[in-house]
Amino acid sequence: MTINDKTLENLSKLSKIKIDDNLRDKLKEDLNLTMNMIDKINKIDCDQIEELSHPIKNNFNLREDVVSKDINRESLQKTSNKTEDGFYLVPKVIE
Amino acid sequence: MTNNWESVIGLEIHVQLNSESKIFSNAPTKFGSDQNLQACEVDLGMPGTLPVLNEKAIEKAIKFGVAINAEIAEKVGFARKNYFYPDLPKGYQISQLDDPIVGKGSIEIQLRDQEIKTIGITRAHLEEDAGKSIHDLFENETAIDLNRAGTPLLEIVSEPDMSNAEEAVAYLKKIHSIVCALEISDGNMSQGSMRCDANVSIRKKGDEKLGTRTELKNINSFKFVEKAINFEIKRQISCLEKGEEIIQETRLYDAINNTTRSMRSKEEANDYRYFPEPDIIPIQITSDQIQRIKNELPELPDEKKERFINELGLSEYDARNLTYDLELADFFEKTLVNIDDPKLVTNWILGDFSAILNKFDVEAKDSKVDAVKFAELLTYLKEEKISGQATKKVLENIWENPDLSVSKSIQDLGLEQISDDNEIEEIIEKVINNNPDQKEQFLSGKDRLFGFFVGQVMKESKGKANPKLVNEILKKKLV
Question: Which of B61, B165, B393, B436 keeps 20 to 30 A from A70, CA to CA?
Fold first, then answer.
């Protein structure tokens, strides 16, 4: 896969990152280098190898269904840019 | 509109599981609390927090899988579904992609003509619910309430096995009755505990290939499922007949105007960039665990239905209608404790009792007339102390006046049945004397007029005469 202007545009849209026009060529070059490496990795035959996204197997990290009551809305909302009446406020999202 | 088309429908149903705490945090899941009082650090996606899976969510999902005879996964893994929306603070939803907890299964639905149809279930997977965005509360901002964020959801995906809105509703009702019987969800559609998206496509009759589908979102009642699908089928057929193409897109159902409108097309569709959730190690489900849950399964709607047929002698039709709504089935069984006449109780529950519940928009469990009182009322009817018509009036009366006893209501309304031969004879004689022409016609062979006389006698007695006695005496008097 090669990164062209169209894929770069799509990436920008998906990541919500605006790309400066003078950076486009440099970015394309960098991303294509990354893609080249991924292509190399993709060539490795790993059909016989079990996936390693989670090499550990266990069941011990389940939680009992118990509620803890220490939610402090005021303190949690301190980190928010804007709150009112207990709500978090964000710029108007129009569907 | 020509009849050359057939529709193909599949449903995705989101069921909120009724655990006490959220799927990945120990914040409460209760509905209706003040905004953001149930959203903890984990639900808010604060840096440094980690999700820890709720064992009850796993158990409830397995329960559902076992109930629909589905394969249960040995390994349950989670994945991140990335999208950007303010009511999803982490920027991704923890869901399942390749290792859904529940695999292929099926359920049976009954259609109006008694035909049984099997609907395949492709999979059911666990995920977390998002928060709520409220757009009309503030002028320039959207308000976010994250109380719902992290509530466990089971998303049940059906095969495209339904061919009209009626089947889709029957399927949704069946899933609803199963999750309620299993007590894994409260099933409250108006509070969003059960939500449904419908995939609808149209093809020429006999075609193998599926047509282009649209996905209908935002359907939150049985009634709207039917309306939304019917509208969309008509819209697609009319497009196709005009030679237009169907665009693969997501459409929003607008209940107020009974229409669907485009939300986003496939080109704009999100690329969710799924990848395995690194924060949650896949868990292993053992066959012992599945067996234990199997052994603890409560009676399912289909089993209840069979019991009603085999042990209580109900018809298939009645048994199925009673078990669609488990609260109604429960009320039925509670009524039977005090009156041993399943057929009579069924008729009244499916008839006038259901009608009054609908009229006041009340569930059977919140009925203003409890099962004991209802049984008492039906006993009066069974013992012919009041007529059917009178029973209906008393039912309405004691519904509106919960403190009133059945006997007092009958007294107040003056509805005690007249079972005194002499009194009935008197009324009959009066009716016959007032209608000499009809009597003559009856005697000359117009048998149908017998019903006329019965009707007149009932009217004259204000519905209070015992119909059985009226029939008997009238037969004698008319000869």
Answer: B61
Give the one of A56, A62, A79 whose C-beta lies nearest to B53's C-beta.
A62
Q: pLDDT tens-digit profile of B397-446? A: 999 999 999 999 998 888 887 878 888 999 999 999 999 999 889 888 88
CA distance B320 to chain A (A): 35
What is the DSSP-derived secondary structure letter of residue B186? Answer: -
Å between B283 CA and nearest CA of chain A: 5
Judge whether B74 and B108 are in contact, CB under 8 Å: no
Q: Are the beta carbons of B87 and B125 closer than 8 angstroms?
A: no
B313 contact A CB<8A: no
**Contact at 8 Å (CB) between B7 and B166?**
no
CB contact at 8 A, B32 and A41: no
Task: Evaluate whether ipTM surpasses 0.85.
Answer: no
**Using CA atoms, how far apart are residues B158 and B170, in angstroms rounded to an integer?**
13
Beta-carbon contacts of A71 under 8 Å, excluding residues fewer than 6 positions away, are: B27, B37, B38, B39, B40
| Cross-chain Cβ contact A58/B281 below 8 Å | yes
DSSP state letter for B353? I
From the candidates B144, B145, B183, which should be mutated to test the interface with A, based on the most A CB atoms within 10 A?
A: B144
> Comparing C-alpha atoms, which of B418, B400, B419 is closest to residue B409?
B400
